[in-house]
Each structure stands twice: as C-alpha cells, then as structure tokens.
Amino acid sequence: MLKCANTFLLLIIALSTGFTTKLDEVTNYYGIPETLTFDNVDFKLSWSSHPNATYYKQEYLPKNNTSEHFDDMLIIDFIVTDLSVKDAVGAQIKTLMERKKTDAICNYSVAKSPDGNEYILDFLMSESAGDKISIIEWNGYHYKPYTDKAGHNGVLLFAISHRAYSDQAIPFLKSLKTYKTEQVTKLLKYPTPEIQLK
C-alpha cells in the first residue's frame, strides 16, 4: 500500500505542468529522433530529465523558442509503473482541481478511447500580472499504456502545449474552441513515437 501511495504521489508531481528543473546536458533517453514533426512544424529535443529510476521526460521546441518563452512545445513523459492510465489521468486532474482554486481560467475536459485504454486530457491555465493576463497555456495530453521491447511497462504521455502572451491572450481565448478541436484531432492521429528506454 505504501509503495502504491508513493507511486501515486510521484505521478501527481511528475505528470503535472510546471516541472521546471533544468539540466545543462540534454540526453535522448528514448532512442527516438531528436527532431519530431507535428502539425507541419519541426520540434527539436531541447531538454530531458530522468530524476529517478522510474520517471523520464523530454521536451521538444520549434526553432527560436525557449523553455522560458515558447509558442509551442512537444512533451513526451514515461513513467515505469503498474498504475493504470486512468489513475495517471486522475492524478493530473487532481493537480488541476487544486490550481482552479487560484486560477479562475483553469479548466479541463477529458475523453477516453472506446476500449478505455487511452485518454485525452486537454486543459487551460493562466498567469496574471494584477488584473491582466500575462500567459495563457493550453495543453493536450494523450495518455496510453506502453511497454517497450525491453519490457519496461508503464504510462506514456505524448503532449502538445501552446502559449499566448499578454495582448495575444484574449484573442487566443476567443479562438480556443476551434483551436483545441483541431489540435486534439491531430494529437489522436499522430503516431506516438515508439520509445525504447536507455
């Protein structure tokens, strides 16, 4: 029971937006191409983390974007665990419910595949400077169970994140319904990289 609780806590921490510890060296832990193309945009591996034995994270950015100020980002997370995809999604939703207490714009929706094995969680968050929105961030998270050729079993997350800043925040909110419908459709059709842990 204690092991399960610790794993669940790790998911709450690890699978939430805002994991900001940065390392100078970028390691490709997944053995996949360092440049991925999504929605006709090339994303290059920009940062990776393997903070413990079970959790891996890689971020990909388009040219001229940085982790501190980006328009779009691809995220691939993998956690080695016996926990279900449903529980992983539940952990992320729990963090969003907490955020909603201090972020009036924060909201989410979730959908699952007909077989119940995969989930799409899309959510919106914001930061403000006084009464003015400084950042709007929309995320589309595709969760699925995954086992690599070496037998590492767990939950794989492939995600797209988009930000709008300051004066662009309100126009983006107005276009959000169409934007997120298009992005979720593209996310569902995208062939998830076949990662192999190193």
From TrEMBL:
Alphabetically ordered keywords of this record: Signal
Signal sequence annotation: 1-19
Classification lineage: Bacteria, Pseudomonadati, Bacteroidota, Sphingobacteriia, Sphingobacteriales
Name assigned to this protein: Uncharacterized protein
Record organism: Mucilaginibacter pineti
